[in-house]
Specification:
three-stranded antiparallel sheet; 15 helices
Length: about 375
């Protein structure tokens, strides 16, 4: 079947959303899927068993951070990322491109690649398309990403046009560097900012190179939601029907539902873990900041409709107490709940696709969560 196989199971008749499954060497995962982010080979505050218990089927790790420490050589020596982090299900690694480009003045972009200074010790490094692929090959994830140029929002048309051309050239170099590696699927990344013409051009050029899956990068970086949806609507229909489509860095409930409606199969975001560490939790009635004083005597669960370990066993008052005291258990409980909330949301979305009522599900969820202004 190659490194991966995508199976399209059903399309929602009313919306066009897709239900599918992706098969890899380390098992399969159902789509639409949300991937918890394990930046440094760990999803913050969570053990692998806890992730499995709440329904995680695939996780994401970060090439840049694992390159910086402990180094891909150590991970390869350990038997690859799966064994190193004791995760026996699929893993996706990003290329490190977003992290490198987010360094701003600490990096310099050239045709060869990107020279940058480490955020840890200031040492100088060069990431090229070939280097990114080499690192990801050593990490051994099931799905790996091309090294691309992620432009900031907003950016002028001329600059984004040059970036798209460079991203295509780099994608060709990535595929050539990856030749002969049959255990990993290399995805191309569509770029183009918020310019429809450039998005269409990027998608078509990457399709010509022929990858087993395609990501859409450079969105959810500060642009209005309406602009992101417009870009998805012009880009996704161009992408092959028989391959997975991945929207990078999107994870809020509205982005997940509206992304699925526009044909996206895979998502990732640090949102649930970051919110959890800051004392904010996602509930069936919207976000609550459980650290707030008004919950000091609230002995109800964080979300009465949730059956996660935190909600079944602890009150808002107790979790607030833990967070205020900087007890590790507090952020573990909020993180566990938030990740499970999004994984459960994806499960409900998949069921809604089966029942051909995703549009009705969206309406009910948005009303309950407090997205009334987005209906």
């Amino acid at each position: 079947m190659g490194a991966i196989k995508y199976e399209l199971i059903k399309k929602c008749k009313k919306t066009g959303a897709r239900l599918g499954r992706v098969y890899t060497k380390y098992g399969c995962f159902d789509t639409p899927a949300f991937m918890p982010v394990g930046t440094q080979a760990t999803v913050k505050a969570m053990s692998p068993d806890e992730l499995k218990d709440i329904g995680a089927q695939i996780v994401l790790a970060n090439t840049y951070h694992l390159y910086m420490r402990p180094g891909p050589g150590i991970i390869k020596e350990a038997g690859g990322l799966h064994k190193f982090m004791n995760w026996d299900r699929p893993i996706l690694t990003d290329s490190g491109g977003f992290q490198v480009f987010s360094l701003g003045n600490l990096r310099n972009i050239k045709e060869e690649g990107v020279t940058f200074k480490s955020h840890i010790d200031g040492s100088t490094h060069l990431f090229t398309p070939e280097k990114s692929i080499q690192i990801q090959n050593e990490l051994g994830a099931d799905i790996i990403m091309c090294f691309d140029e992620c432009v900031p929002y907003p950016s002028p048309f001329d600059y984004v046009e040059q970036s798209v051309a460079r991203t295509t050239r780099w994608a060709k170099r990535c595929k050539l560097a990856h030749t002969g590696i049959e255990s990993q699927a290399l995805f191309g990344i569509v770029q183009g900012g918020t310019y429809k013409e450039l998005r269409e051009r990027s998608a078509k050029e990457l399709i010509e190179i022929d990858f087993p899956g395609y990501a859409i990068g450079g969105l959810s970086v500060g642009e209005p939601a309406e602009e992101m949806y417009e870009i998805l609507e012009c880009t996704v229909p161009i992408l092959p029907e028989d391959k997975p489509r991945y929207l990078m860095g999107a994870g809020s409930p509205d982005y997940l539902i509206d992304g699925v409606i526009r044909g996206i199969d895979m998502f990732d975001c640090v949102l649930p873990t970051r919110l959890g560490r800051n004392g904010t939790v996602l509930t069936s009635k919207g976000r609550i900041i459980v650290r707030d004083a008004k919950y000091s005597r609230d002995f109800t669960s964080m979300d009465p409709e949730c059956d996660c370990y935190a909600c079944k066993n602890f009150s808002r008052a107790y979790i607030r107490h833990l967070l205020k005291c900087n007890e590790i258990l507090g952020l573990r409980l909020t993180t566990l709940h938030n990740i499970k909330f999004l994984l459960d949301l994806m499960k409900k979305i998949r069921q809604a696709i089966i029942e051909d009522n995703l549009d009705e599900f969206r309406k009910n969820f948005f009303n309950s969560f407090g997205y009334n202004d987005k209906l």
